[in-house]
Amino acid sequence: MPDTTPTPPATSEARHYSVIIVGGGQAGLSLSYYLRQAGIEHLVLEQHTMTHTWHTQRWDAFCLVTPNWQCALPGHPYAGDDPHGFMKKDEIIAYLDGFIRAVAPPVLEHTEVRSVKARPQGGFAVVTTRGTFGADQVVVASGGYRTPIVPRLAERLPASIRQVQSADYRNPQALPEGAVLVVGSGQSGAQIAEDLHLAGRQVYLAVGEAPRCARFYRGRDVVDWLAEMKYYDLPVTEHPLREGVRDNTNHYVTGRDGGRDIDLRRFAAEGMELYGVLEDYRDGRLRFAPDLRRNLDNADATYNRINAGIDQYIAAHGIDAPPPSLYTPAWTPAAERTELDPQAAGIGSVIWCIGFRPDFGWLEVPVFNGRGHPGHERGVSAHPGLYFLGLPWLHTWGSGRFSGIARDAQYLAERIAAACSPEALAA
What we know:
This is FAD-dependent oxidoreductase. By secondary structure, the chain is α/β, with parallel strands linked by helices. 24% of the residues lie in helices and 20% in strands.
């Protein structure tokens, strides 16, 4: 979709806006939707193209892990005929393209933000590859998953092993022949390992501390139960972990083929080789922590704990549902294996699935804590006029997802409107 804002000249200051949104993903576009409704002048700056990560950072067999009915971007709810299904990659892109058309945001694509600085007199200077803009208020909607994480030990692996980050994985056929080592068992790692396993590839999986959950339980999708239980409305301030929940790894499950559990133990019984956390590579051997059994047990404990909460809800409300059940291990490691010779195992490629980190190096405003994370309350920072949107657990579980971004965007739009000048509201 072409830019809807004229290209500014590369001068000392291209133009001043009431609000500048940094990031043209679903978060930035959701806020643009509400600002347009309020008549607030604004500009969206996008380094690549709108919603580009959905085009470039998803593998071919990717699908949603939450049911389609949770796709509830503002003014653009899911309207298909399979609300309890799971859209595939092409369907997700089509859904987002429809959202872009509906919002028709004022956007400059292919515009990288180099720095955002607070001005002594108020407002911000936004330096970009297409000039410097002024703004009364700035919303950072660039996402919490920008920079792929690859450990330094990757530098020491043999040159014969091809290394791929999860954002660059496409399909089993695109990898060299031989076995594949998948490092990390969060949502991406578990699903990519499954994708390779189903294709008949020999998979070695370094299992981390990610929890798991059931896809269906007692006659319904677990997401449906948790929504009815109001879990997705729980604000971070009321979560038992408080802000610590933002550091949690997402539960692994899949929407593939209509949705099912991901059971790493079953994969192991079928031939997938499971190890603990990858710690090092030296003397020609991969070194793993002796924690596979613990990681599998903890993931299963979370699985059973979520189901037990559903059991309690069903009992408390007298709901007629199929009987409860308890997951019992389909396979247990005989012993912890802490070493692996990748060449002897025939490993031809490694896929790093250990996550992403945010990149706020360009934001030169003192709002960060000691861990480099932005401080905010429901997206409102301590610095007047600076906001964040689209981060995991910004307010609720759905803050970084299609299901909860509208609520967060509407809230920030109201705060922004309250701080706008009468001229901006009349624009």
